[in-house]
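Wait, can you check?
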Amino acid sequence: MKNPILKIIDDRKSGKFSGIPSYCTANEIAIEALLEQGAKLNTEILIEGTANQINQFGGYTGMTPKDFRGYVFNIAERVGFDKNKIILGADHFGPLVWSELCEKDAMKNALELVRLAVEAGFKKIHLDTSMKLADDAPDERLSDEKIAERGAVLLAECEKTFQELLKKNPDEIRPVYVIGSEVPIPGGSQDENSGLQVTTVEDFEKTLKIYEEKFSEHGLSERWNDVIGVVVQPGVEFGDKEIHFYDRAAALELSKSLKKYSGIVFEGHSTDYQPKEKLRQMVEDGTAILKVGPALTFALREGLFALSSIERELISEDERANFVETLEKIMTKNPADWKKHYHGSEKEKFLARRYSYSDRCRYYLTQPEIKNAVQKLFSNIDGLISRGEILPGLLRQYMPRQYERVRDGVIKMKADALVKDFVVSVAEDYNFAAGIKI
């Protein structure tokens, strides 16, 4: 059976418009929303986990690749989504999490990570070896040869593991790979003043050439065709409070160069918060894999804040869930996941914790106290709904899109459905961009 992502390559070879959104999130409510929408559209859903989210030591989610597969599949079963239509992806898999270690130890961990990913059934793997390790020269640029050499070593481990899977299941789907990393580390830029340069044609083609040579040196020439994507910087990025919007004129030469490589597409990272028309242009110009992460949980947080505003209107203070206040309390008590990202005065940091595009809130949504606040918020709102206490005008005040969709019968008047629709609104932009009919 063919890897479903290869349909993008086949479509584009035949002149058809084709792309795919890549949802990089481990948030349960967000995944529920994406899979529920996917079930309505009867389409594949690509869900990716990043190396700092999931790894053999648990990552910040506490999950291994196998755990993440089970987690996503359990959600699919709960919402009635066909698990065969889930494509699991591995994002920035390599020595990213262990860059403070020497090459021997960092790569040992990276090899184990990619092995576990292939073993767990991940079918799209971004091999990222672009970061310096402890024994790399600190004052010298990490060479393309070294990056590609480490990438080839990781792919060899992936292939070895896949061959073991084939012994158990001759119909096992072969993974495809993405190489390169012309982007900051996961989660968006931390430097608002850093210059944003579109990847040059020279650098793109050099990446392909050196990787192909290294694959050959490692006896992996046949696997070169499994590389279907290259991460480039097409000119998009976001930070704490700014967005770099796609400028197709600036990316013109890079886009034109892709026409020489019919089996390759670009993968765009940090595409969050781009207008849907810009996303569509990116797919038209060759960035056929659109990765989105923080924008999903940013939208989720918007929905939870909106429900909290309705709660404040109708629920007595001693009965409120106080989600907004609980989130602030937990984030200030445990600042490790935001303090390197948010700067300025106390008021500026306060506002960033709530409204920054970097959305460091997502690291806290699994905290038990916050999860309990969300559940109480849902319970309070559903109680109000059942008693008919939320006036249409009140819903429209805080959730104008959801008001219309409830009015038109598109979504149910339920707390979780209202919040998940905020996530769906993001996914709809990506479906439009990728040519998936809504």
Notes: The radius of gyration is 22 Å. The beta strands are 20-24, 45-50, 86-93, 124-127, 176-179, 227-232, 237-238, 243-244, 265-268, 287-292. The mean pLDDT is 96. The longest strand covers residues 86-93.
